[in-house]
Amino acid sequence: MAYVALFITYIFINNFILTQFLGLCPFIGVSKNSESAIGMGMAVTFVMGIASIITWLVYNLLLIPLNLPYLQTLSFILVIASLVQFVEMIIQKNSPALYQALGIFLPLITTNCAVLGIAVMNISEGYNLMESFVAGVAAGIGFTLVLVLMSNIRERMDLHPVRKAFKGVPIAFISGGLMALAFMAFDKSLLTNLLG
Amino acid sequence: MADERKLVLTRGIVKENPVFILMLGLCPTLGVTTQVINGLGMGAAVIFVLVFSNIFVSLLKNVIPNSVRIPSYIVIIAAFVTIVEMVMHAFAPAIYKALGIFLPLIVVNCIILGRAEAFANKNSVLDSFLDAIGMGVGFLLAVTLIALIREVFGSGTITLMAIGSFDGVIEIPLLYSYPVRILSLAAGALLLMGYLKAFFEWASARKRG
């Protein structure tokens, strides 16, 4: 039950883009069409899930016993960068179709704050290994959800006249703001209502 | 030559402002700007990391092999971010706590990696230093502007450093009792960013004529 609550929390209540402001660059940059939004979202979810596990293991099995927790930032970003490279190589070798879909998004993920964000958050919230994994995957799904919604809004918006100064990025931010307003409806009471 | 140097130093502040024009480093820009002091702290931290990473990348540009340059830059940046984290934790614990997760996230701030890749690895140490100062100050000003608007309208206060008998909080009479609460929430930050960006687009289009 706790895992379900965690899952819902990270998708809706603590949505990474709309309430935590993590991963705004792809939110603006990759949301122009829904196909690439889905590709980016899947790639991020995949990497966030694996990165959550590995960074948790690195922190608890390596940095804590060696008394080096201040190397957290440095080691996490190295783990994530090499993980992304590794995932890219494996996908390229084993599944050309998936590589076609995700390939161009993978290098961008290293500098996506959502991935490093969830790794740091898992540690600061004191989650155990399983909770970290669930939080990572859920945050990735929440990211994907908002990215895909946004790309649909932007595809629609292309067909409508928008004032010149607002074209492109400004109107995307304003739509994002309105979406964040809607997401404010999801709060702790969502959990109580769903799970009792 | 002197004119070129001046351009390198000043273009980050308005003409190529990293936040409003280049749209880099958006996450901390919106994430920490509920209070002015957090904006200033974030800006200072980014300036420090940007200056040192630009200097080191420029110094090492002939040593680092091309194929591993991005990971090398990330390691350089992460080292300075760790220094900032430890210094802030020791000397400014309140700001350290307020910036929270966004402090380690300076590592993935696109401004810093972007300047290393686009400028410092092709230019001299002095130019890279000037570029870092210009871009860093541009970021600081942008973050402070957004924080100022959000705090003044969102909670009716301006929070600065507490010095002596001054507790660091300036209250604005009418807005303090009737704040426009939405600006301090997440949705307001996104809306404000949209309107500011539209304003800058409009202003630069007008200037071009």
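qc> The interface with chain B takes residues 18-25, 28, 70-74, 76-78, 81-82, 110-113, 116-117, 120-121, 124, 163-167, 169-174, 176-178, 180-181, 184 of chain A (CB under 8 Å).
qc> done
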